[in-house]
Amino acid sequence: MFKVGVTMNITEHERQAGVTPRLKTATKQITCPRCGASFNLFQSRAIACKGCRHAALGCERARCLKCDFEFPLNGPFVPTDRGQRNLSTYMNAVMDNYYKSVGKKPSR
Questions:
Q1: Phi, psi at residue 30, to the nearest 5°?
Q2: What is the DSSP string of 43-103?
Q3: 38 pLDDT above the threshold of 90
Q4: With 50 as the cut, is the pLDDT of residue 1 above it?
Q5: Helix, strand or coil for residue 39?
Q6: CA gap 10, 93 in Å, rounded
Q7: Is 41 exposed, middle or buried (0-12, 13-18, 19+ CB in 10 A)?
Q8: Cα separation, 64 vs 31, whole angstroms
């Protein structure tokens, strides 16, 4: 996991490519507190949370790809409750846009 309060620096090239601080945060590697597996929030939402009704409703948790352990995004990953909600809303919008663009429903 990365340290609380780390500022996500966006290079000019990343900015031109459409990278935002929330996108950069969502692609940071997180570590499962139970088994130690490493993954990012995109992988968690797209694979482990696929079909979960809570994932579509602004879930503020991550689910491990390896052991299926669910844990909150707050603390080391997102330092505030507001940040946790913002990141969850952002991830839901990204996944919803993906499913609409490929013509799939987010079900298991």
A1: -115, 155
A2: HIIIIISTT-TTGGGT--EEE-TTT--EEESBTTTBSSHHHHHHHHHHHHHHHHHHHHHHT
A3: yes
A4: no
A5: strand
A6: 21
A7: buried
A8: 8
Give the whole-angstrom CA distance, residue 54 versus residue 104. Answer: 18
Q: Cα torsion for 105, 83, 76, 34, to the nearest 10°?
A: -30
Confidence at residue 36, expressed as pLDDT on a 0 to 100 scale: 94
Which helix (H) or strand (E) segment holds residue 21: the answer is: helix 21-26
Q: Where are the domains of the chain?
A: 19-102
Q: Are the CB atoms for 53 and 108 separated by under 8 Å?
A: no
Q: What is the pTM of this model?
A: 0.61
What end-to-end distance do the CA atoms of the chain give, in Å? Answer: 28
Phi, psi torsion values for 70, nearest 5 degrees: -105, 135
